[in-house]
Specification:
This protein is mainly α and 268 residues long. Helices cover 41% and strands 0% of the residues. The radius of gyration is 19 Å and the shape is globular. Bound molecules: heme C (4 copies).
């Protein structure tokens, strides 16, 4: 058995043991549907705003649009490393840069979303690497809230958007439920989750059982994505109105969330 495999088996064993010790509650994620609410003192304690009116989704139309646009959209939307938004950018220039008049189709999720509360059941323990806490403390968990700030509203107003928390033009990069597109693609998770695990790792309903999770090929087949720099650049690119220089290594350091036993800096 390779060293890598041994480490993985050990991890699975420790996880399983912890889950057993924690009791039946943890062994049945589907029965534990309580939404993950930030606890006092943690980032993101702001009261969760009411969900904006949902948008009717036409899966077929979304799929068709996605096919024709998505590949080209991502490939032309690479950040180039200069400071931006460029000083003195006019409204017209900004609209051009962010592709304001385009319809951003997003991706068609191949599986159902589970919600961050489900992932947290197994990924919150400090001994398992506290992926949930690390995410809660990261900007991504606040991405929806940010759209409610005066800065967001001022920017939206400039673009003629009445409410950024209800606009696909903003939510495509600020909420998992929009999954990189202008239309909400799921009613299974609240937009308030912001950018949660499933934005980067793929919708999790199919892979989140212990049996599947501990077998990477099986998990990948069930929808697990092992993300890399390209995943980040779907949002950290020039089409973000507030885009900043994106240094992948530096940014990854700020949000990395390794499993115990992973090599130092293990990541993409
Ligand atoms: C029932 C418990 C459980 C749930 C629920 C769960 N996981 Fe896991 N997850 C695990 C275990 C155990 C491992 C470690 C597997 C290993 O070491 O091979 C793991 C590993 C992972 C990995 C690393 C996989 C790899 O091959 O490197 C990712 C990514 C992950 N989980 C994401 C998620 C996401 C996202 C969710 C929610 C949609 C989730 N998990 C829900 C138990 C769970
Ligand atoms: C293409 C993806 C994308 C779109 C579309 C997008 N954003 Fe963002 N937004 C980002 C990213 C990435 C950041 C983080 C930038 C950073 O810190 O590097 C961000 C950050 C922000 C911030 C915080 C800025 C700061 O300096 O702290 C605000 C406010 C914001 N966005 C508002 C909006 C509004 C309003 C819209 C819709 C008009 C919108 N965004 C659309 C990707 C996007
Ligand atoms: C779905 C769109 C999206 C994806 C994918 C995404 N981000 Fe972000 N990211 C954002 C938004 C939006 C913000 C700003 C959130 C806020 O301030 O409320 C942000 C903020 C951040 C920040 C905080 C800004 C700072 O400089 O401190 C870091 C770090 C970061 N992202 C790293 C990453 C990395 C690394 C990846 C890929 C592994 C990634 N992001 C993938 C949208 C995304
Ligand atoms: C902004 C994107 C992003 C978000 C959000 C995110 N992850 Fe990850 N995650 C990554 C990347 C990138 C990797 C590294 C993949 C690799 O090792 O190649 C990773 C790795 C992992 C691993 C494996 C770590 C290891 O040491 O092998 C686990 C487990 C995991 N994530 C769970 C989660 C959980 C649970 C959440 C939500 C609480 C989450 N992730 C949120 C991007 C993300």
């Amino acid at each position: 058995m390779s060293r890598y495999k041994t480490v993985r088996y050990l991890r699975v064993f420790i996880f399983s043991l912890t889950i057993c010790v924690l009791g039946a509650h943890d062994a049945h994620p589907e029965q534990n549907a309580a939404p993950a609410q930030p606890s006092a003192g943690q980032a993101g304690t702001v009261p969760v705003p009411a969900a904006p009116a949902s948008v009717t989704v036409e899966p077929a139309a979304v799929a068709q649009a996605a096919e024709s646009n998505a590949a080209q959209v991502y490939s032309t939307a690479q950040a180039t490393g200069e400071a931006r938004p460029p000083a003195g950018e006019t409204l017209e220039q900004m609209k051009e840069r962010i592709g304001f008049d385009k319809v951003w189709p997003g991706e068609v999720p191949a599986h159902a979303f589970a919600g961050v509360a489900k992932c947290a059941i197994c990924h919150k323990g400090e001994k398992q690497g506290a992926q949930y806490r690390i995410w809660m403390e990261s900007a991504h968990s606040r991405a929806f809230e940010t759209l409610g700030t005066p800065a967001a509203k001022a920017l939206a107003e400039r673009l003629g958007i009445a409410d950024p928390q209800a606009s696909g033009k903003c939510l495509r990069c600020h909420s998992t439920a929009y999954y990189f597109g202008e239309q909400k693609v799921t009613e299974d998770i609240p937009v308030e989750e912001g950018i949660s695990c499933e934005t980067c790792h793929g919708p999790g309903k199919g892979y989140m059982t212990l049996k599947v999770m501990k077998d990477r090929p099986m998990a990948v087949q069930a929808g697990l994505i092992i993300p890399d720099e390209q995943t980040c650049r779907k949002c950290h690119n020039d089409t973000a109105p507030n885009v900043k220089e994106f240094d992948f290594k530096e940014s990854w350091e700020k949000i990395k969330h390794p499993l115990p036993g992973s090599a130092e800096g293990d990541g993409p």
